[in-house]
Design brief:
Cathepsin D, subunit A, domain 1; alpha+beta; 4-stranded antiparallel sheet; 6 helices; 263 residues; 7-stranded mixed sheet; 26% strand
């Protein structure tokens, strides 16, 4: 029987173990970590935008749009990760770059009203549902893709999305918007009847302490809270009649008001 000892009386070294067939755990973690960081940051960005613009998510189409853009960013990130496969530093750098691009775009969208020195035409092109001041007492509201004049206003300091409706004699709050304002819908009395495109509807009287549309501010504004769900609240003639004038030019609605109407 052959001896297992070496020539100097020491035990012969054992052969090194074979490397496992699967990828080492550290390499697997290195590939998963950039994805986890990217998805966590993307989720945080979506939550932040929803908190900043709660009035924007009103229908399944709105949520499908969020899902579409989120999937688009995931596909872009997948392409960047694929191009740098096996390089953790490169993958992480790509994830940070794409998140920085998305975050910058979100900040530009959120604070576009504060951007100064931008030509009026460019501001109108990127002013979705935000009124653009073109004069000391003049606002412009661009027409959206559906042909409506939508604007983000404030009721008692809370953001509310309105559709300007010259066919409505009153300003009407959607139940979802009234609930966000803190109104207890169960205690309302829907005593006001109105003819609508869907037949007779009912609403409850409501007095808002303040209504704001851009620099236009009105105190003690009478509104109606609709009983049936609505896709958007309405700004009616009772708001427009308190202005000096309003007119449609091309695809834009121009609002003019006097010193007593503004803030």
């Amino acid at each position: 029987m052959a001896s297992e000892e070496g020539p100097w009386g020491s035990r012969a070294p054992e052969p090194p173990p074979r490397p496992p067939l699967s990828l080492p755990a550290w390499r697997m973690r290195g590939r998963l970590l950039p994805w986890l960081l990217f998805l966590a940051a993307l989720a945080a960005l979506i939550v932040a935008l929803l908190l900043a613009y709660p009035e924007a998510m009103r229908s399944p189409q709105d949520w499908s749009g969020v899902a579409y853009y989120a999937l688009f960013l995931v596909l872009l990130a997948a392409g960047a990760f694929r191009a740098r496969q096996g390089r953790f530093g490169g993958q992480l750098k790509a994830a940070v770059i794409w998140l920085a691009i998305g975050g910058t775009a979100a900040l530009i969208y959120a604070y576009r009203e504060e951007l100064a020195g931008v030509p009026e035409r460019l501001r109108l092109a990127f002013s979705t549902e935000r009124p653009v001041a073109v004069g000391q007492h003049e606002l412009v509201i661009p027409q959206d893709e559906q042909g409506a004049f939508a604007v983000i206003g404030k009721v008692n300091g809370q953001k509310v999305r309105f559709i300007i409706d010259t066919g409505s004699s009153e300003t009407v709050l959607a139940p979802a918007d009234a609930r966000r304002l803190g109104v207890d819908l169960g205690k309302l009395r829907y005593i006001e009847a109105a003819e609508t495109a869907n037949g007779k509807g009912y609403g409850a009287p409501y007095l808002a302490s303040r209504l704001e549309v851009g620099p236009i501010g009105l105190e003690n504004v009478r509104m109606v809270i609709n009983q049936a769900p609505m896709t958007s609240s309405l700004l009616g003639l009772d708001f427009l009649d308190r202005l000096d004038s309003f007119q449609i030019k091309g695809r834009s609605l121009y609002l003019k008001w006097g010193d007593r109407t503004g803030r």
